[in-house]
Amino acid sequence: MPSKAKTGKKLVIVESPAKSKTIAKYLGEGFIVEASIGHIRDLPQPSELPADLKKTSLGKFAVDVENDFKPYYVVSPDKKKKVAELKAQLKDADALYLATDGDREGEAIAWHLLEVLKPKVPVYRMTFGEITKEAIHRAMDNLRDVDAALVDAQETRRILDRLYGYEISPVLWRKVARGLSAGRVQSVVTRMVVDRERERMAFKAASYWDLTGQFGADAGSFKAKLAAVDGAKVATGRDFNDDGELTSRNVAHLNEELATSLAAALQDADFRVRAVDTKPYTRRPAAPFTTSTLQQEAGRKLRFSSKSTMQIAQRLYENGYITYMRTDSSALSDEAVTAARRQASELYGPEYVPQSPRVYTSKAANAQEAHEAIRPAGDSFRTPAQVAQQLSGDEFRLYELIWKRTVASQMADAKGSTATIRLGAVASDGRDAEFSASGTVITFPGFLAAYEEGKDESRGDDDSDEARRLPNVAKGDGLTASEIVAVGHETSPPPRYTEASLTAELEKKGIGRPSTYASTISTIQDRGYVRKQGSALVPSWIAFSVVRLLEQHFTDYVDYEFTADMEGDLDKIANGQAVGAAWLKHFYYGEDADPGLLSIVNNLGEIDAREINSVPIADGITLRVGKFGPYLESSLPTVDPKTGEVVESARANVPDDLAPDELTAEKAVELMETAAPEERVLGADPHTGHTVVAKNGRYGAYVTEIIPEMTEEQLANLPVEYYKNGKPKPPKKPVKAKPRTGSLFKSMTVESVTLDEALQLMSLPRVLGEDAEGNPITVQNGRFGPYLKKGTDSRSIGSEEEIFTITLEQALEIYSQPKQRGARAAVPPLAEFGPDPVSEKNIVVKEGRFGPYITDGITNITVPRSTSLEELTRERAVELLAEKRAKGPVKRTATRKAPAKKAAAKK
Which of 175, 249, 495, 820 could form a disulfide with 609 if both were Cys (CB 3.0 to 4.6 A apart)? Predict the structure, then answer.
């Protein structure tokens, strides 16, 4: 065959369309830049495998567990068109440049493109850490091949997650609830949140007291705190354990009586300075951002969720404002160091820049291959003021945070001095009391002129030195004392994780990859394992059940050290020190005394689902995790205070907003005592004889009838069906009749509803009659109130009571009027974000049937469960609408009726 004529065109494939335009501009003519839009192929669901493969060793996971764990990949249906476009572009190209991201996932995408496109032209792997002209040209000078070890590591991770999820999740479905999922990292993260809540539930507060006073000298006054009594250090919160026990020896534990009496005895005491200690103060800047520290700091300072932080950072990177945002490295390139030092000198003065550049290395466990730290893009940085007009509000705030942190990282130390004054007196009752006051004075702000790192909530007493100047006093100076008061304290439980502190702990333990923290934290919220209470992460009771099952039966797989070791093993594969297939074989099949996942799943034994889903709360009261949520159950006979009846096994629903650590024994008793009766017998329907009861259900109170099971005699009298050979068929199980039900009106309760009212409710919908065309008109109650219905035409009516009083004439009168759309009082939107850039319609957030949703009047998208309304930004709203438009309308499969069988021809 004749060789293909050279065209001079070079095809460059990146992941994101947002990158392609900028990169094309930097590369110039002769380069065609296209986007794969992420992964083009993946493991299919096993149900989607070809029929001939479903019964093979591929059938369970779409991974051949008997042949070196070879995966079976398919091009995603929504990417087939894109693959065809890329193949068409490649036909006219002389070279292919794979320019996907430089991390493991990006390397895997490049490999998949190579496998699917099967290019017959030279192929080059091109990576860059920022989208600037200089970076793109440097990348062209440093081309390489696809890194097989990185691809192997990413493929091993993908297969590992498939094995873990597909083997363990079905156990959760059987023993806890359908629809739950287990994940190699998500289950461990869920355990961390549950463990912290367990610590809070077991915590016992301890009480301790101290004194504070205002002291004056000629040079000024200051506040000091009691530090010692008779030479013994005064106990503080740090001296107690979580059981409320004092653990420190030789400390003075003051109670209210001792503290109050000491304060009274010191009112006229002669206070003098006993010691003055001054030390130099030095503070160094924090390292430039890694993925993890960016998420933490954006959470603390900007109140961004991890997911929002990464989405905004992605946009900043793709549009050339910052470097690549998925990195474990805190190092800066030589060009970046020079840029940061130059900018610090220009903005703050040369004295704010140290003589030598600062060098940072990662301290995180299992830090993997990466780029440099997250910083402003370019060999010279744009200040926040220079980009303010080009960025949205949230983009600007995150860019400013990154810019400040980067510049500050190359600035001089903050300098100052810390002074501590110790003063004391002998009380009138003979006790010696010593007070202490500390203060730090910054004499040279250094990097603090640009940036100061935030802190997470901590336990214990806040003994940090305040930024205050103490008066100039000397040992032996007399002091005047005023406002000496006793102050009581209680120890506090471990603080709940926030997204920032959870991210920090995950990085510290080496669990998972920082690049996946945001999606993992979002996933455990979407799955219902964790919810947000303010910024705190609170586990659900179903998370307790899941974690308990995993701890008891899959111990290693939710063990923190075991999970971190797996990350270390994946790093070895990425570095070429191990092979993925061999590692997966050991993980799944085990070796010698080390059982694999398959062996553990096959030898689970009997799991007591009731025990897994039960948590003792108080004597005789147990929390159960049921099909419709958590509830309390009392095993002790109790007397209903309203009816006087003895209830053998009482139940009470647990409020959705009650955190597990708030469900104390006292609270459980209160909920049991105030719970409405679950069921109340109203009597028998005079027409059917069925018992009618009122119940409290998960979704409100209702009435229903109890249809008795058929007796043995009734079953025996059912007609018998026969086979063609004359033999009787086995009796069929009779179809259960569906009981009539009806929701109670708002004015009714389980305790007050009568039998007559219940029969009326169960008779709905009520037929009023027909209109002139013979269309029946009914009246009924619905989710949004009472309404009339005629065919597809519904009309609201005034009150629930009108359901049983409205007449056909009144209904016809309502239907004779034009339909009033929006006749109800207009409900204001939950939020407004201005015009959409595509539809130019106003974007609002409304409350819908299934929760809040975003709409521009044309496209609707539900607000993700992991995003609170307070966190929802205009940029995120625009992005969600754009994603929904890109997916197009939901394709509904038309159900076709099977063609009717032709009657057999008569002979």
Answer: 175
Supply the DSSP symbol for 820: -
pLDDT in tens, 259-302: 999 999 999 999 999 999 999 999 999 999 999 999 999 998 99
**Beta strands in 270-394, from DSSP E residues, in sequence order:** 271-283
Q: Which residues contact 20 (CB under 8 A, 6 or more apart)?
A: 14, 33, 34, 35
> What is this structure's pTM?
0.76
- 618, two tokens: 């108080």
- 416, 441 in Cβ contact below 8 A? yes
Structural contact between residues 272 and 839, judged by C-beta atoms closer than 8 angstroms: no
State the catalytic residue, choosing from 321, 324, 588, 702: 324
304: tokens are 């961004």
Predicted local distance difference test score (pLDDT) of residue 111: 96
Sign of the dihedral through C-alpha 54, 58, 60, 62? negative
770-777 contact pairs (CB < 8 A, 24+): 771/812, 771/815, 777/808, 777/811, 777/812, 777/815
Percent of residues in the chain assigned helix, strand, coil, to nearest 5: 35, 25, 40
| Whether the Cβ atoms of residue 476 and residue 272 lie closer than 8 Å to each other | yes
Nearest to 845 by CA among 856, 858, 859, 831: 831
10 Å Cβ neighbour count for 732?
8
Give the pairing of strands 646-647 and 651-653: unpaired
Among 604, 605, 581, smallest CA distance to 168 is for 604
Q: Band of the pLDDT at 463, cuts 50, 70, 90? A: low
Residue from 340, 327, 328, 325 nearest 285 by CA: 340
Residue from 623, 648, 502, 582 nearest 186 by CA: 502
Instruction: Name, in order, each residue with C-beta under 8 angstroms of 363's C-beta and a sequence gap of 6 or more.
Output: none
Distances from the Cα of 385 to the Cα of 334, 343, 353, 883, angstroms: 24, 13, 22, 31
Q: Are 845 and 869 in contact (CB under 8 A)?
A: yes
Task: Tell me the β-bridge partners of 30.
Answer: none
Distances (CA, A) of 452 to 1, 404, 702: 67, 9, 58
| pLDDT the model gives residue 262 | 96
How far apart, in whole angstroms, are the C-alpha atoms of residue 62 and residue 73? 8
Please confirm, yes or no, whether 348 is among the known catalytic residues.
Answer: no
User: Are 216 and 479 within 8 A, CB to CB?
Assistant: yes
Banded pLDDT at 445 (limits 50, 70, 90): very high
Separation CA 18–CA 313 (nearest Å)? 13
